[in-house]
Amino acid sequence: MFVAAVSPFAFQATDEGAAIGDGPGVGVATLAFSVNGSTTFVANSTSGASLAYTLLLDDTLEGWVSISYGAEDRAGNLEALHSTTVVIDRSAPATLVLRSTPAFGAFVSTGTVFSFVAVDRGSVPAGIQATLYAVDDVSLAPAPPGFSLAPPERPATIHFGSVDRVGNQEVLASTAVVLDATPPETSAAVEGPQATQAGVLWLSAHSTLTLMAQDPDSGSGASGVGATLLSVDGSTPSAVGNLAMAGLAEGPHPLAFFSVDRVDNAEGRKERTIGLDAS
What is the C-alpha R_g of the chain? Predict the structure, then answer.
């Protein structure tokens, strides 16, 4: 049986006559308690037949505790000792907050999943009853298996703590994060000879196409650009910064490009067609 450290043990000793229920005897003289082998005697300070006593255990005890008890009446008759064993758990749980990817420093996205792992401490722990959490100033509630933050973008504080099965409550802890839900913005710039005709941007072998990206800051910070990706002629997008026209065959080439920030917010693909005129 698990009990909390503050649990009282109430005893009531009554001296009967020759048989139980036939009326009071000479009265209880003392109660004896043995806690893990250390005995305490409590004398009856009244003239009554009964003795009631509440036992509070030493506040250093934790784990398995053996309690033996019995009474002696004023005529010297000793009761056969009774015993019980309890487990005292006076240690509060410890809770950790976990977060999935994507994450970068304090920055998270709407796809980042938070969860909690709680362990009850002590030599013989009673076990976790519940883990509670709150985001910002919302009231504490039972924690789900996992949750994510929803827009708007903002700094957020996650509060959390657990309670065990005998009421030991952990002091609330917290972690601060910043929700970044906005993707980067990418633009293309050309250095060198260029001309546009029928929707195609024609460049020379001496021209260079440069992709530039920035991650917008809505006021709470931004995780920053993680990568800018470019696809040429339908190829798999790869991280690039510049495209030298001298490396392409003469003629038109469809391009697609976009950027991703450090918490995986991806910009929509931007498309345009460029052409190499080397003649």
Answer: 37
